[in-house]
Design a protein that fits this description.
Number of strands of chain A: 2
Helix content of chain A: over 70%
Strand content of chain B: under 5%
Helix content of chain B: over 70%
Strand order of the largest sheet of chain B: 1-2
Shape of chain A: globular
Order of helices and strands of chain B: HHEEHHHHHHHHHHHHHHHHHH
Oligomer: heterodimer
Number of strands of chain B: 2
Strand order of the largest sheet of chain A: 1-2
Largest interface: A-B, 30 and 26 residues
Chain lengths: 491, 500
C-alpha cells in the first residue's frame, strides 16, 4: 500500500471522476467528491512524510524500469505541491455543495463534480510524474476539464470566457507538445532525469534552445505570465464561485511547478539562466505583472475580476522569486505558491459567499455588507490583509523572503517593486472594504449572512492564513528545503 | 508579580478591555465603567510593576512567538520604551474620563465602536513601546494605523472618509514601501533585528549607504510627520477630540518619533551616525519641519482658522523637536528627545482637551470665535494657557525642561543650526499661542456687545465636569513635570548612559 501512494494520488480522483459522472444525484456526487478529495489529501500528507523520512520516492508504473517505462518521481518540491493542490481541493469541495447548488442547474451537478475531480487528477498528475509526455497528457486532462468548469458559470459570458481560455490554453499546450517532441528527437528519452543527464551533450545545437523557447512560452501561457494572462481575468470572473476558488489557487500553481521542474531539473539552472539568460525575460515580465496588473486590479468594479487581476500580479511575485535563481529566491517563489493559494482561495470563497447572498459581486453591490454579512466580510478583511502582506499573515512571510532574496542579489529596484505592489494591493483591497464597511446598505436590503456550509470552509482557509503567518517555521523551512532540492544544492 | 510577566499583561489588558467593551455595548454605563477600569488597570500594571523594575536597571523580556526561523516577536523593555509606555498608560485613564464627557456631551454615534477601537489602539501603542526588535515594532506600528482608522473616520461624513483615505494612504504607503524595506535591508546586513545598546549596524554598513538607509527609516516612519509626509496629521483632525488628544497628540505620533529615536539609538547607534557625514541631513530636515510647520500654524491663527488644525501643525513642529534633538547626536540629545516626548504629550493633550471643551460647551471650532471665552470657561482656558506655556517652553511648564536639555545637547555638540532653529521656533510658538490666550481672557466677545452679561453667561458656561476635571488634571501634570522632573529624567539619563 505505502509504496503505491504516488500512483494512488492520481488514480483515486480519476476513478472517482468516472463514478461521479455515472451518478444522477447531486448529493451522491458531492459525497463521492468529498471522500475522494479528503483521501487524496491524506495520500499527499503520507507522501510528504515519506519523502521527508526516506528521501526521493520513485515509482515505476507497471513495473517497467525507467527510462523505458513511466516513472513517478516525488521529491520535496512536488510533495509540497501535491499537498497544496489536494489541501485546496479538500477545502473547496465542502464549500462547493452550497455554492454550486445555487449557481448550477441540478442535472449538471454530477457532471460538475466529475469535471472537478478530473481537473484535480490532472493537476496532481502533472505534479507527481517524472515523465515528460505524461506531463502533457495530464496537462490536457486538467485543462480540458477546467475549460468545461469555467463554461458552467451562470453568466452567459462564461461561455466566451471559457472559449478564450480554451484557445489560449490549447496554444500553450501545443507549444509544450512541440517542445517535448523536439527534446525527444534530440535525446530519444522522455524521462526527466534521463533527459537532464543527456541534454548537456546536445545543448549546443539549435534545436534545444528552440525547444526551450517553446516550453517557456507554453508554460507561460498556462501560468498566466504577463502578457500571456489575457485568458485569466474573464475565466476567473465568470466561472462558478467554487471553480474560481479552486482554479485560482491550484491551476496556475501547478504551472509554476512545471516551470521550476523544466528549468531547474530538466534543463538545469546553469543552462536556463547562464546560457539562455532566462532571467532577462522573466524578471521584467514579473515586474510588469506586479505593477501593471495591480494597477488594473485597482480599476475593477467587479470583485472577482479585481481578485483575478490581483492573481496575475501575485504570479508576478512568484516568477520574480524564481527568476533570481538563488535558493532564497526560489524558496520565496515556492513559499508564495503555498501562501497565495491560501489567500486567494479564501478571498474567492468570500466572493462565493457574497454571490450566494447578494447575487452579484460588483463592488457597488457590496455596500453595507460589513453590517449585513459580518462574518463573510471579516474573512475578506483578514485574507485581504494577507494579500497586502501585513505582518502575522502569510502574505507578509512571502514578501519578507522575496525582499530578502532581492536584497541578497543587491537588486534594489526589485525589492522596491515588491513593496510598491503591496501598497497598490492595499488600495484595491481597501476599495472593497470601504464599500462594505463605510457605505450604507441599500434601503430595505434583506441580505443575510451566508450559510455555515460556505462560512466554515472560508474561515478554515482564513485561519490557515493566520496560522502559517504567525508560525511560518514549517512552511518556510519546507520551501527552503524544496528550493535546495530543485537547485541541487545542500542536502 | 514579576516584571517579565507584566509585559504581555500590558498588551492583554487593553485587548481584554476592548473585548468586554464590545460585549457590553448595549449598556453604556457598564461599557464606560469597563473602559475606565481597563485603563486604570493598565496604568497600575505599567507604573506599579514595570516602572520600578526598569528604574532598578532591569530589562524585562518576553517572547510572544517565533514567526520565521531565527525571527521572533519579542518584547523587551528599556528606558525609552518605559517612558513612552508610562506616558500612554498614565494618560489613557484621564482621556477615558474625558471621552465619557465628550462623547455623551456631543451625542456622538457609534460609541461602542469608538471605545473598542480606542482600547485596541492603546494595546497597539503598548506593543510599540515594549517591542524588543524591529519586526515586533513594525507589527504593532501597523496595528496602530489600522486600529485608529475607524476612529479618524468616526463621523462617516464624506469629509471624514476623504481624510481617512489620506491617513491610511500616507501611513500604509510609507510603512510598507519604505519602513519595511529598511527593516529588510537591516536584516540582510546585520543578520539581526534586535535593539541593542550601541546599535547593530556599526562596522557592517558605511558611507552613503548609511544616509540612504536612514532616509528609508525616517520617511518610512510616517507617524513622525516629518515634512513632506505630515499631511495625514492635519487630515486626521476630523476625528472626535479625544482621538486627536490621546492618539494624534500622544500615542500615534509619539509612536512615530519614539520609533525614530529607537532606530537612531539602538539600530544605527549614535557613534555610527556621528562618524558618517551622509547622515547629517536629518538635522536639516527636522529643523525645516520645525520652522515651516510653525509658520503654517501662525498663518492659521492669522486667518482665524480651525483651532484643531493649528494645534495639529503645532504638533508637527513639536514632533520635529524630538527628531531634531536625537539628530544632534550628542550624548545628552537622547535625553532631550525622551523628555520632550513626555513634555509635549502632557502639554498637547491639555490643549486638545481645552479645544474639545470649548466645542462641547460653546460649539466653537474656529480661532476667530474665541474672544472673551476665557471669562466663561476659566478652568478650560486656564489649562489652555498652561499647555501653551509648555509649547513655547517657558517655566513653570514641562516644555521648559525638555527644551533646556535639547539646548544643552546642542551646545555640547556645537550644533549651531539646532540652536537657531530652537530660538526661532520658540518665538514662533509664542506668536501663535499668546494671542489666543490674550484674546480669550482680555478681548470682548461678540456676544458681550449689547447683551447683558447675565444672559450671555447663561448661553454657555464650563463644559461637563468630566471634561473639566480631565483637562485640569493634564494641566496639573504639565506643571508637575516642571517641579518634579526627577522620574523621567532618571529614565532618560539611563538611556544616555546606555547609548554612550
Amino acid at each position: 500500500m505505502r509504496e503505491h501512494l504516488p500512483v494512488l494520488q492520481v488514480v483515486l480522483p480519476l476513478v472517482a471522476a468516472l463514478l461521479a459522472a455515472l451518478t444522477r444525484r447531486p448529493g451522491r456526487a458531492w459525497a463521492l467528491a468529498l471522500t475522494a478529495a479528503w483521501l487524496v489529501l491524506a495520500i499527499a500528507i503520507g507522501l510528504l512524510l515519506q519523502v521527508l523520512g526516506e528521501g526521493v520516492t520513485s515509482y515505476h508504473l507497471g513495473g517497467w524500469e525507467p527510462p523505458y517505462g513511466i516513472e513517478y518521481r516525488v521529491d520535496l518540491l512536488n510533495a509540497f505541491v501535491l499537498l497544496i493542490v489536494s489541501a485546496m481541493a479538500a477545502a473547496v469541495v465542502p464549500f462547493a455543495r452550497t455554492s454550486v447548488a445555487r449557481e448550477i442547474a441540478p442535472e449538471r451537478i454530477p457532471l460538475f463534480y466529475s469535471a472537478l475531480l478530473l481537473c484535480l487528477a490532472g493537476l496532481l498528475g502533472i505534479a507527481v510524474t517524472g515523465d515528460l509526455f505524461n506531463v502533457f497528457v495530464f496537462l490536457e486532462i486538467s485543462s480540458l476539464s477546467a475549460y468545461s468548469l469555467v463554461a458552467l458559470g451562470s453568466d452567459r459570458r462564461a461561455l466566451t470566457a471559457a472559449y478564450r481560455y480554451l484557445i489560449m490554453g490549447s496554444v500553450g499546450a501545443t507549444f509544450v507538445m512541440i517542445a517535448i517532441g523536439l527534446l525527444y528527437a534530440m535525446t530519444g528519452t522522455l524521462n526527466m532525469m534521463d533527459l537532464a543527464a543527456r541534454l548537456p551533450a546536445v545543448a549546443a545545437t539549435r534545436t534545444v534552445p528552440v525547444a526551450f523557447a517553446f516550453l517557456t512560452v507554453g508554460v507561460g501561457l498556462k501560468l498566466a505570465l504577463f502578457p500571456l494572462h489575457l485568458w485569466l481575468p474573464n475565466a476567473y470572473t465568470y466561472a462558478p464561485s467554487a471553480v474560481s476558488a479552486f482554479i485560482a489557487s491550484t491551476a496556475t500553481k501547478v504551472a509554476i511547478y512545471m516551470l521550476l521542474r523544466f528549468f531547474f531539473t530538466v534543463f538545469g539552472a546553469a543552462f536556463s539562466f547562464d546560457v539562455m539568460q532566462l532571467d532577462w525575460i522573466l524578471t521584467p515580465l514579473a515586474l510588469f505583472a506586479i505593477v501593471l496588473a495591480s494597477l488594473a486590479a485597482l480599476h475593477q468594479e467587479d470583485g472577482k475580476r479585481l481578485l483575478a487581476y490581483s492573481s496575475v500580479a501575485q504570479i508576478g511575485y512568484i516568477v520574480l522569486g524564481i527568476s533570481l535563481a538563488s535558493v532564497l529566491g526560489v524558496a520565496a517563489g515556492i513559499l508564495h505558491v503555498f501562501n497565495h493559494a491560501l489567500m486567494k482561495g479564501a478571498l474567492f470563497m468570500t466572493m462565493g459567499c457574497v454571490m450566494y447572498a447578494v447575487g452579484s459581486v460588483k463592488v457597488s453591490a457590496m455596500a453595507g455588507l460589513g453590517r449585513l454579512m459580518p462574518l463573510t466580510m471579516a474573512a475578506f478583511v483578514a485574507a485581504g490583509l494577507s494579500l497586502v502582506g501585513v505582518p502575522l499573515t502569510v502574505g507578509f512571510i512571502s514578501k519578507w523572503y522575496l525582499v530578502q532574496a532581492a536584497l541578497e542579489r543587491g537588486a534594489w529596484p526589485l525589492a522596491l517593486a515588491v513593496l510598491l505592489g503591496s501598497v497598490i494591493a492595499a488600495a484595491y483591497v481597501w476599495k472593497v472594504v470601504e464599500a462594505a464597511y463605510f457605505r450604507p446598505p441599500p434601503a430595505g436590503s434583506e441580505t443575510r449572512e451566508a450559510p455555515l456550509g460556505l462560512l466554515v470552509p472560508t474561515w478554515a482557509l482564513v485561519a490557515a492564513n493566520l496560522y502559517f503567518g504567525i508560525d511560518a517555521r514549517w512552511t518556510a523551512g519546507m520551501a527552503v528545503r524544496a528550493a535546495e532540492a530543485v537547485l541541487g544544492v545542500g542536502r | 508579580m514579576s516584571a517579565d510577566l507584566a509585559l504581555p499583561l500590558a498588551l492583554a489588558v487593553p485587548l481584554a478591555a476592548a473585548a468586554l467593551v464590545g460585549l457590553a455595548g448595549r449598556r453604556p454605563n457598564l461599557r464606560e465603567g469597563l473602559t475606565l477600569a481597563g485603563s486604570g488597570l493598565l496604568a497600575a500594571v505599567v507604573m506599579g510593576s514595570l516602572l520600578p523594575a526598569v528604574l532598578a536597571g532591569e530589562r524585562p523580556e518576553w517572547t510572544l512567538l517565533e514567526t520565521m526561523p531565527a525571527l521572533a516577536l519579542r518584547l523587551r523593555l528599556e528606558p525609552l520604551g518605559m517612558i513612552f509606555a508610562t506616558v500612554a498608560a498614565l494618560l489613557w485613564p484621564v482621556n477615558s474620563l474625558y471621552s465619557v464627557g465628550y462623547m455623551r456631551g456631543n451625542r456622538e454615534g457609534h460609541q461602542t465602536r469608538f471605545y473598542v477601537f480606542f482600547a485596541l489602539a492603546l494595546s497597539a501603542a503598548m506593543g510599540v513601546a515594549l517591542a524588543g526588535n524591529l519586526l515586533t515594532l513594525f507589527v504593532f506600528y501597523e496595528a496602530l494605523t489600522l486600529s485608529t482608522y475607524p476612529l479618524v473616520t468616526h463621523r462617516g461624513t464624506p469629509e471624514a472618509m476623504r481624510a481617512g483615505r489620506v491617513y491610511l494612504g500616507v501611513l500604509l504607503a510609507t510603512s510598507i514601501g519604505l519602513f519595511l524595506l529598511a527593516i529588510a535591508w537591516t536584516w540582510a546586513v546585520a543578520g539581526t533585528l534586535a535593539f541593542a545598546e550601541g546599535g547593530i549596524l556599526r562596522g557592517r554598513l558605511g558611507g552613503g549607504a548609511v544616509g540612504v538607509l536612514l532616509a528609508l527609516y525616517i520617511f518610512g516612519i510616517g507617524k513622525a510627520a516629518l515634512m513632506p509626509l505630515h499631511r495625514w496629521l492635519p487630515a486626521a483632525m476630523v476625528a472626535p477630540v479625544p482621538v486627536s488628544a490621546l492618539l494624534h497628540a500622544v500615542a500615534v505620533v509619539k509612536a512615530g518619533v519614539f520609533a525614530i529615536v529607537k532606530v537612531l539609538v539602538y539600530v544605527f547607534g549614535l557613534d555610527l551616525l556621528r562618524s558618517e557625514p551622509s547622515a547629517r541631513w536629518l538635522l536639516y530636515v527636522a529643523g525645516f519641519t520645525t520652522i515651516t510647520a510653525s509658520v503654517i500654524a501662525l498663518r492659521t491663527l492669522q486667518r482665524g482658522g480651525n483651532l484643531k488644525r493649528m494645534l495639529a501643525y503645532s504638533t508637527v513642529s513639536q514632533l520635529s523637536y524630538v527628531v531634531l534633538a536625537a539628530a544632534i547626536l550628542a550624548p545628552l540629545s537622547a535625553v532631550g528627545a525622551a523628555l520632550h516626548i513626555v513634555a509635549h504629550a502632557f502639554g498637547k493633550i491639555t490643549l486638545f482637551f481645552a479645544a474639545g471643551s470649548i466645542y462641547t460647551a460653546a460649539g466653537k471650532t474656529e480661532i476667530g470665535e474665541l474672544a472673551g471665552i476665557g471669562r466663561r470657561m476659566p478652568w478650560t482656558m486656564g489649562a489652555f494657557a498652561v499647555g501653551a506655556l509648555s509649547m513655547i517652553g517657558l517655566p513653570p511648564a514641562a516644555g521648559f525642561v525638555s527644551k533646556w536639555y535639547i539646548l544643552l545637547a546642542a551646545f555640547e555638540a556645537e550644533a549651531l543650526v539646532a540652536v537657531v532653529v530652537l530660538a526661532a521656533s520658540t518665538l514662533l510658538n509664542a506668536a501663535y499661542f499668546v494671542p489666543i490666550v490674550y484674546t480669550a481672557f482680555f478681548a470682548d466677545g461678540p456676544a458681550r456687545a449689547g447683551a447683558p452679561p447675565a444672559s450671555s453667561a447663561a448661553a454657555h458656561g464650563e463644559a461637563p465636569w468630566p471634561i473639566v476635571l480631565a483637562t485640569s488634571a493634564t494641566a496639573a501634570l504639565t506643571l508637575a513635570f516642571f517641579v518634579w522632573p526627577e522620574l523621567p529624567l532618571a529614565l532618560a539619563l539611563q538611556l544616555a548612559g546606555g547609548s554612550g
